[in-house]
Amino acid sequence: MLEATELTKQYGDVHALAGFSLTVEAGEIVGLVGHNGAGKSTFVEIVSGLIRPDSGRVTVAGKDPAQARSAIGTSPQHIALYRPVTVREHLKLYGGLAGLRRAALQREIDELVGALRLSEFCDRPVGLLSGGQQRRAQAAVALIHRPGLLLMDEPTAGADPETRQALLDVIKQRAREGTAVVYTTHYLPELAELEATLAVARAGRVIARGTSAELLDGLPGEVRVTFQDEEEVSISTTEPSTALVGLLSGNERPVASVDVRKPSLDDLYRSLAVAHV
Ligand SMILES: Nc1ncnc2c1ncn2[C@@H]1O[C@H](COP(=O)(O)OP(=O)(O)OP(=O)(O)O)[C@@H](O)[C@H]1O
């Protein structure tokens, strides 16, 4: 559904993209992760047809992004809605532009209003909504025409847990129906929930691609024991149970808490940074 090969994009001295390649199949959710400035949003902007690459090739459903607008739904990092216009009017406008009419348009609006819990503020102007409500409205605009490719750039930033869950549920459902999804986030548990494969961007390129099991297995997490006298001991380990037994055996002091942390995105970036110096 999406094929990007060796994309480059330069802003002055900054190489925002430096040979960025990524392929996403129909029905696949790809979690695009990477440090700030890695090039994720620039990639999303190119695929959504907002900006053009300096070189390289990108196709959506076999076409140039500018010719594939109706196949693409974008929820950009920064809210791009009209402040005086209500959420419902946005959905009618964007659904209508994509060719949805009357009953079909109404059906899609009703479904999204329900799934993303928009009913309470659907008839209010966007400019009067909270940040989280605007994010939900933005996501609904991306989804209204059932695009074959969804580009979600940090769609849950600032969202409360219920909103986050509602959005993840809709995205999973769309992927089951065959939608290809690119989902950028700084939050690994969301990608586990989406059962996404990962693409790790660094300095304008994708430097690792695979399932989270392939990329995270073998990376150390952390076991931390806090004793009641407030002393804290932590160990970086790939074997948390063994490490915990080791920490506690022979220890007579009462334990206040035990915390086992799985490998995080930071652990992944660190391991890849070592591999890519
Ligand atoms: N319009 C622009 N003009 C100048 N520089 C830009 C522009 N857009 C992006 N850049 C630069 O390109 C690089 C990549 O930025 P981009 O926004 O794609 O990163 P990102 O991975 O999305 O980061 P974040 O996680 O912070 O959203 C950064 O160094 C950024 O400063």
UniProtKB/TrEMBL annotation:
<comment type="similarity">
    <text>Belongs to the ABC transporter superfamily.</text>
</comment>
<keyword id="KW-0046">Antibiotic resistance</keyword>
<dbReference type="InterPro" id="IPR027417">
    <property type="entry name" value="P-loop_NTPase"/>
</dbReference>
<dbReference type="GO" id="GO:0005524">
    <property type="term" value="F:ATP binding"/>
</dbReference>
<protein>
    <submittedName>
        <fullName>ABC transporter ATP-binding protein</fullName>
    </submittedName>
</protein>
<dbReference type="InterPro" id="IPR050763">
    <property type="entry name" value="ABC_transporter_ATP-binding"/>
</dbReference>
<keyword id="KW-0813">Transport</keyword>
<dbReference type="InterPro" id="IPR003439">
    <property type="entry name" value="ABC_transporter-like_ATP-bd"/>
</dbReference>
<dbReference type="InterPro" id="IPR003593">
    <property type="entry name" value="AAA+_ATPase"/>
</dbReference>
<keyword id="KW-0547">Nucleotide-binding</keyword>
<feature type="domain" description="ABC transporter">
    <location>
        <begin position="2"/>
        <end position="228"/>
    </location>
</feature>
<dbReference type="Pfam" id="PF00005">
    <property type="entry name" value="ABC_tran"/>
</dbReference>
<keyword id="KW-0067">ATP-binding</keyword>
<dbReference type="GO" id="GO:0016887">
    <property type="term" value="F:ATP hydrolysis activity"/>
</dbReference>
<dbReference type="GO" id="GO:0005886">
    <property type="term" value="C:plasma membrane"/>
</dbReference>
<dbReference type="GO" id="GO:0046677">
    <property type="term" value="P:response to antibiotic"/>
</dbReference>
